[in-house]
Design brief:
The protein has 301 residues and is of the alpha/beta class. It is built from eleven helices and nine strands. Helix 5 crosses helix 11, helix 8 packs parallel to helix 11 and helix 9 packs across helix 11. The protein starts with a helix and ends with a helix.
């Protein structure tokens, strides 16, 4: 089970301060309690099983049970580097904020496809370039796979909403509305297991796009033209194909040039031709999923 990896990595932290770990199992058919017990001698662990209510409300449940004054939320499919908690503590001592987010990275043992997905989700050549970077599109918006929140902020905001997707960004906007500060702690990264099929990655990006338009409607001031770019990219790509059919190749050549740049950039960064090839596919899938999800949500209102 994935939970085994994250617990092992938490047990190996180079961190002397006391901390507790809460595992909230949200209605899983295959319980992980036996995995949790395996690590009970190394960690101060609490295990809770509850009926399925969605990730956001389960995180709230965990924070309600916790005894600390600052909560760190991690997904079950992450691995935490040994200096993670030390980096968080150091950053908050230098500049305290009631919320923080950290980047994610791909594990060296991931497949070529997962590494290509990681490229598409983090490259400056794609919309993924907003993850784990400050001041790319407005203020950095923490993501729930690596999210810190003070008890004070949780009590005032009531935590995550019942949104199925985008609930982390929705909480961030409410934190800002109530004058809580957030920050990106770049050194507090986690290794995040990427989707292992194109279909799963498409569904993930589709849900991201769908949620983003809902967030734009709920928080109009947060809306940015850049969030529309994936939809325009896909529409433009379809139009360029039509023009190419009738012998006008200029527009399709622009897209060919772009995907060639993606291939070269991925090849340089990953030094693997197969990852570079898959990066072209995953970049298109990311634009397609996000763009169609955004449009679907836009015209559903």
């Amino acid at each position: 089970m994935e939970i085994d990896g994250v617990l092992e990595s938490l047990a190996n932290q180079c961190f002397s301060d006391k901390f507790e770990v809460l595992i909230i199992e949200d209605g899983s058919s295959e319980k992980c309690e036996h995995i949790v017990k395996k690590h009970s001698s190394k960690l101060e662990l609490k295990y809770f099983f509850k009926e399925s209510s969605g990730a956001g409300l389960s995180r709230n449940y965990g924070m309600q049970q916790a005894i600390g004054n600052y909560f760190i939320i991690l997904d079950s499919d992450v691995i935490v580097p040994k200096n993670y908690l030390k980096e968080v503590k150091n950053a908050l001592e230098i500049k305290y904020t009631d919320a923080f987010g950290g980047p994610d990275a791909v594990d060296k043992n991931s497949t070529f496809l997962q590494k290509a997905i990681n490229y598409s989700m983090t490259s400056v050549l794609t919309t993924g370039g907003i993850r784990g970077k400050n001041n790319v599109i407005g203020k950095f918006q923490p993501r729930s796979f690596n999210f810190g929140l003070s008890k004070k902020a949780f009590q005032k905001t009531k935590g995550f909403s019942n949104m199925k997707y985008g609930e982390d960004i929705e909480l961030t906007f409410r934190l800002w509305e109530q004058n809580f500060k957030s920050q990106l702690i770049e050194k507090a990264f986690v290794y995040h297991k990427r989707k292992n099929t194109i279909t799963k990655f498409y569904k993930q990006t589709y849900n991201f796009g769908f949620a983003r338009n809902i967030l734009n409607s709920k928080f109009p001031k947060s809306s940015k033209l850049a969030y529309l770019l994936p939809s325009l990219f896909i529409i433009g790509f379809d139009v360029s194909i039509v023009f190419a059919i009738f012998g006008y190749y200029y527009f399709i050549s622009v897209y060919i040039l772009y995907f060639a740049l993606v291939f070269i950039d991925s090849l340089v960064k990953n030094t693997n031709i197969f990852i570079a090839f898959f990066s072209v596919i995953t970049t298109y899938v990311q634009f397609l999923g996000y763009g169609l999800g955004f449009l679907k949500s836009k015209f559903s209102f």
